[in-house]
Write a structure and sequence with these properties.
This protein has about 150 residues and is mainly α. It is about 90% helix and about 0% strand. It has helices at about 5-125, 135-145. α1 (about 5-125) crosses α2. It starts with a helix and ends with a helix.
Length: about 150
């Protein structure tokens, strides 16, 4: 087997072809990597904008929720104040009614006591005992006058 110049020339050209092909593949791989990096950078910017928009929307919704909670809190306070006022009015009315009853009882007791004192005074003045049954109408009239 003779190795001649043609075979050597073909082997050299084959090596050059492989080298050129590998170099082109490498350049294509580098170009694809750079393009992917640019796409990634662009997507990162878009994601940053989307996250900023989402953050702004979340802050707006949080502000709305807080505002609504404040309004509801103020409404609950007003309702509680109104309920407390109604309850206080009921307590005051009940206390006034009880006071009126106590005043009426005190007046009745006072009338009774004044009648007793009048009878006792009359007994002392007359130096004799007054019959309460006989003078019941007089005592009742005296009570009504007081």
């Amino acid at each position: 087997m003779d190795i001649n110049a043609t075979l050597i020339g073909q082997a050299i050209w084959f090596g050059v072809f492989i080298w050129i092909t590998m170099k082109a593949d490498r350049q294509k791989l580098i170009a694809d990597g750079l393009a992917a990096g640019e796409r990634g950078k662009h997507e990162l910017e878009l994601a940053g904008k989307r996250s900023a928009d989402a953050m702004r929307e979340a802050k707006e919704k949080a502000a709305e929720v807080i505002s609504g909670a404040d309004k509801r809190g103020a409404q609950l306070i007003e309702e509680a104040k109104l309920a407390a006022k109604v309850e206080a009015d009921k307590v005051v009315a009940a206390a006034k009614a009880e006071i009126d009853q106590e005043v009426e009882r005190a007046r009745a007791a006072l009338r009774e006591r004044v009648a007793e004192l009048a009878v006792a005074g009359a007994e002392r003045i007359l130096k004799r005992e007054v019959d309460a049954k006989a003078h019941a109408e007089m005592l009742a009239a005296l009570k009504q006058e007081l």
